[in-house]
Design goal:
Layout lengths: L15 H11 L7 H13 L4 E5 L2 H11 L7 E5 L5 H8 L3 E5 L21 E7 L8 H11 L2 E5 L7 E2 L2 E2 L6 E5 L12 E5 L2 H11 L22 H12 L1 H19 L6 E3 L6 E2 L5 E5 L7 H10 L5 E2 L18 H9 E4 L7 H15 L8
Helix pairs in contact: 1-7, 2-7, 3-4, 3-6, 8-11
This protein binds pyridoxal-5'-phosphate.
Pyridoxal-5'-phosphate binds next to helix 3 and helix 4.
Family: Belongs to the DegT/DnrJ/EryC1 family.
Protein name: Perosamine synthetase
Keywords: Aminotransferase, Pyridoxal phosphate, Transferase
Length: 375
């Protein structure tokens, strides 16, 4: 094998160059321009929702969503402990407290059965995260939210185009947020989007995103806002990516099917993140858990793969184990198991069958290692 097999890679195989060149030629390179409007309109359509508000990245998309619900000191927001840190940090930016919830053992997503006992009079909402592309079981979540009068934010950073039953994720909660970082299913380099069906929330978020300036009155500010805008160049890339999103999704499913084919004989050693019968996974990351039958640690396993030029990532460390959010009293056994034993394998549109066959053959070898001495 020659080059390193990367865990993620953008694929810019559509109109990206053409649209970016047009921005340069017409000098519309800042946060105004036709691509911003077109990307927002087309993205709202893709999410089968009324409004999409572009912004600088997925973290500020979450911040805007929480600001729209007036989250502040004393407020609590339920968040899965097994997620990327931005989900919790956005609550902290607002002065609120992220309250962690353990994961479902099959999907690794927030476990709806573990939510109700975390709710108290300070709880204002729930952020669900469709982890690695697998949709959250939304029906029970929406039922709990209704019962306790909580908002629901869907963090769809990792799950563009995934389906919950026949609904596209991002169209179910009150607000959804997306990331278009370079490793995501579609990318703008850095970028994000907030999606909602609610007209008032749409207006509020647009104002907050653009320094708090009223859209109908230039240089009139009644709230403290932010400069969280996306540029026309980023939106140009995003529009080109969105035109091809079905290709990106199909490619990822192909890669996942190949992993199932080549790793399917190793179930004595590994577990997969489930794909439930009500779910269409969008496979941002194809991930495995090492069972106890594997004799080497997860980190040694990844180190061996790295030496074989296969880049991997550990599944996120649960947030309650991070120095910034450490908790010792509460237990989160499922998230701890997945976080301790999980690995993200290379998943992107440039991979070929021979890459997956090679990665799987190396995985088999390390699954069967007797000790870390190896060969
Ligand atoms: C679940 C989740 N939420 C939020 C984010 C933040 O997105 P960004 O990196 O665009 O700020 C990420 C990013 O990778 C993520 O995985």
């Amino acid at each position: 094998m020659g080059d390193v097999i990367q865990v993620a890679s953008p694929v810019l195989n559509g109109n990206e160059k053409k649209y970016v060149n047009e921005c340069l030629e017409t000098t519309w390179i800042s946060s105004k321009g036709k691509y911003v409007d077109e990307f927002e309109n087309r993205f709202a359509e893709f999410c089968r929702s009324r409004y999409a508000i572009s912004c600088s990245n997925g973290t500020v998309a979450l911040h805007l969503a929480l600001l729209a619900f007036n989250i502040g000191p004393g407020d609590e927001v339920l968040v899965p402990t097994l997620t990327y840190i931005a989900t919790a940090n956005a609550v902290t930016y607002c002065g609120g407290k992220p309250v962690f919830v353990d994961s479902d053992p099959e999907t690794w997503n927030i476990d709806p059965n573990k939510i109700e006992n975390k709710i108290n009079s300070n709880t204002k909402g729930i952020i669900v995260v469709h982890l690695y592309g697998h949709p959250v079981d939304m029906d029970p979540i929406m039922k709990i939210a209704k019962k306790y009068n909580l908002f629901v934010i869907e963090d769809v950073a990792e799950a563009h185009g995934a389906l919950y039953k026949d609904r596209v994720v991002g169209s179910i909660g009150d607000i959804s947020t997306f990331s278009f970082f370079g490793n995501k299913i579609i990318t703008t380099g850095e970028g994000g989007m907030v999606v909602t069906n609610n007209e008032k929330l749409n207006e509020k978020i647009r104002i907050l995103r653009s320094q708090g300036m009223y859209t109908s009155r230039r240089y009139w500010f009644e709230v403290i806002g932010y400069n969280y805008r996306m540029t026309n160049i980023q939106a140009a890339i995003g529009l080109a990516q969105l035109e091809n999103i079905q290709w990106h999704l199909d490619k990822r499913r192909e890669i996942a099917d190949l992993y199932y084919k080549y790793l399917g004989s190793l179930l004595e050693y590994i577990e997969f993140q489930a794909e439930k019968d009500w779910a269409t996974h969008s496979y941002w990351m194809f991930s495995i858990i090492l069972k106890n039958t594997v004799k080497i640690s997860r980190d040694e396993f990844m180190e061996h793969l790295k030496n074989d030029k296969v880049e991997t990532r550990p599944v996120f460390y649960p947030l309650h184990t991070m120095p910034t959010y450490r908790e010792t009293k509460e237990k989160y056994p499922v998230a701890e198991k997945v976080g301790h034993k999980g690995i993200n394998l290379p998943t992107h549109g440039l991979l070929k069958e021979e890459d997956i066959a090679y990665i799987s053959e190396r995985i088999k070898k390390y699954c069967e290692y007797e000790s870390c001495d190896g060969d």
